[in-house]
């Protein structure tokens, strides 16, 4: 890969490999996480990344870190790069609410929107089963939650709002139905039709959505019989507003739609932190491109911000720790194009000149943990070096042309977990057999 080789010169630099070898520690079991847990200290925001949305080890190691933070550091809830309505069902199941699902499979099977495997997988199911058992020993107000932070669920959020208002607020229900009716002609393709229409009529349904949000916020004090359902209804209204903004921004080139999405996720974090009280602590599960500080990549020069940057800027005094993940080779679940059938895809060895290649050389094929905040002033680490990022769409034959993000690693993350060889995760929606639990479930949870 020419940009990596010529611009970064890592392929010829033994200094970086030697430094990583000297400063990283082995990562084989949960005890090996001790340095990371110690370095997190009293931080209230811990952001745990992943270099793909379909890798078994990223999910299981995030779960192990999260379990320790919940048990040892008193963290309050988990926020993930998922849709609010789907994750809210999981949240109620994990907290043991009545009529919240008879088992984790039935709850996870309700994830319908592509890419379903991101959260409807046995790795997440194992963590939620553990969380449900852990919550049984806690009072209702202390139970650990699981929430979706994303903005994509316009249709599902509107349906949730209407179901809630049918029982609680006939006046606001009429406003919600008016907003839903405005969107009906554009309701078939994840907002793309709406985006195109909004280029001709910029306001389109904006007035109706803002009226709905205003009506719900005004009446929130009266919705007091189930505080979490009130929170959910309010959040769904914010999703409707921000999704409408997102759809309008989709048609334009540039950073606007990305920024709307990440700013929405940060505002959702703020709302959840306020709901959980002054002592609240959050663990975030999202892709590296969201939790790693955008200012340490070329995203910044394109006018893009992300969750990692915004949370650091707004809450540095409360303690923010971002942990990146990466691997050298293996396999992943992804699609060849948007909406494609999920499939297991081979991940080739990382290209020479990348961070992943350097870690591979430094670790002799072993998994490693490195606390980057302890070596961030080392001059040899101050260059932009390619760092692999795999999304829900992945074509490894084109990888070297678009899957490496130039990154100053110690500025992007506070710590990094390197897993030399990784494997594909285990989706719940398997065709044609459907319900098929992997032999090693629940993965040592």
Task: Give a topology summary.
Elements: H1 2-8, H2 14-23, E1 25-26, H3 34-40, E2 45-48, H4 56-73, E3 77-80, H5 84-94, H6 104-108, H7 122-135, E4 145-148, H8 154-168, H9 170-183, H10 192-198, H11 206-219, H12 227-250, H13 256-276, E5 282-285, H14 288-291, H15 307-315, E6 320-334, E7 343-347, H16 355-363, E8 368-370, E9 385-388, E10 404-407, H17 409-412, E11 415-422
Parallel strand pairs: 2-5, 2-6, 3-4, 3-5, 6-11
Antiparallel strand pairs: 1-8, 6-7, 8-11, 9-10
The proportion of residues in beta strands is 5-15%
The secondary-structure class comes to: alpha/beta
- Uncertain runs: 1-12
Tell me the series of helices and strands, N- to C-terminal.
Answer: HHEHEHEHHHEHHHHHHEHHEEHEEEHE
Instruction: Indicate the overall shape.
Output: globular
The separation of the N and C termini measures: 39 Å
Helix content: 40-55%
Radius of gyration: 22 Å
Average pLDDT level? 90
E-strand count: 11
Mind describing the biggest β-sheet?
A: 9 strands, mixed
Question: Could you walk me through the main structural features you see in this protein, from its secondary elements to its overall organization?
Answer:
The protein is an alpha/beta fold and about 450 residues long. It is about 45% helix and about 15% strand. The protein contains 17 helices and eleven strands. The strands form two sheets. Strands 1, 2, 3, 4, 5, 6, 7, 8 and 11 form a nine-stranded mixed β-sheet that branches. A hairpin with an 8-residue loop joins strand 6 (about 320-335) and strand 7 (about 345). Helix 4 (about 55-75) runs parallel beside helix 7 (about 120-135). The protein starts with a helix and ends in a 23-residue tail after the last strand. The model is unreliable at about 1-10 (pLDDT under 50).
């Amino acid at each position: 890969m020419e940009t990596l080789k010529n611009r970064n010169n890592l392929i010829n630099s033994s200094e970086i490999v030697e430094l990583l070898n000297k400063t990283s520690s082995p990562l084989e079991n949960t005890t090996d996480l001790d340095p990371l847990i110690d370095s997190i200290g009293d931080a209230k925001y811990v952001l745990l990344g992943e270099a793909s949305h379909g890798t078994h080890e990223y999910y299981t190691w995030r779960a192990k870190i999260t379990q320790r933070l919940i048990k040892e550091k008193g963290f309050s809830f988990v926020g993930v790069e998922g849709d609010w309505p789907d994750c809210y069902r999981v949240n109620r199941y994990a907290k043991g609410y009545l009529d919240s699902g008879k088992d984790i499979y039935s709850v996870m099977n309700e994830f319908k929107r592509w890419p379903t495997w991101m959260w409807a997988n046995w790795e997440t199911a194992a963590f939620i089963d553990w969380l449900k058992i852990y919550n049984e020993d806690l009072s209702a107000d202390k139970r650990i939650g699981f929430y979706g932070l994303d903005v994509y669920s316009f249709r599902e959020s509107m349906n949730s709002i209407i179901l809630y208002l049918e029982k609680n607020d006939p006046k606001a229900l009429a406003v919600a139905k008016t907003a839903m009716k405005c969107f009906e002609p554009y309701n078939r393709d994840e907002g793309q039709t709406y985006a195109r229409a909004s280029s001709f009529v910029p306001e389109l349904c904006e007035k109706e959505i803002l009226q709905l949000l205003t009506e719900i916020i005004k009446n929130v004090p009266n919705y007091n019989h189930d505080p979490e359902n009130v929170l959910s209804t309010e959040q769904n209204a914010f999703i409707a507003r921000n999704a409408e903004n997102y759809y309008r921004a989709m048609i334009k080139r540039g950073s606007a739609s990305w920024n709307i999405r990440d700013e929405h996720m940060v505002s959702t974090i703020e709302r959840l932190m306020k709901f959980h009280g002054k002592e609240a602590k959050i663990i975030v599960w999202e892709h590296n491109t969201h939790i790693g500080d955008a200012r340490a990549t070329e995203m910044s020069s394109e006018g893009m911000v992300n969750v990692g940057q915004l949370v650091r800027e707004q809450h540095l005094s409360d303690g923010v720790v971002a942990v990146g993940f990466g691997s050298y080779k293996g396999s992943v679940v992804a699609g060849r194009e948007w909406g494609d059938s999920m499939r297991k895809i081979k991940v080739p060895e990382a290209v020479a000149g990348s961070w992943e290649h350097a870690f591979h050389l430094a670790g002799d094929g072993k998994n490693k943990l490195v606390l980057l905040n302890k070596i961030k002033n080392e001059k040899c680490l101050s260059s932009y070096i390619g760092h692999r990022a795999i999304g829900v769409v992945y074509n490894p034959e084109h990888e070297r042309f678009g899957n490496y993000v130039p990154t100053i690693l110690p500025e992007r993350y506070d710590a990094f977990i390197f897993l030399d060889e990784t494997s594909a995760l285990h989706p719940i929606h398997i065709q044609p057999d459907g319900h098929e639990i992997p032999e090693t479930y629940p993965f040592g949870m």
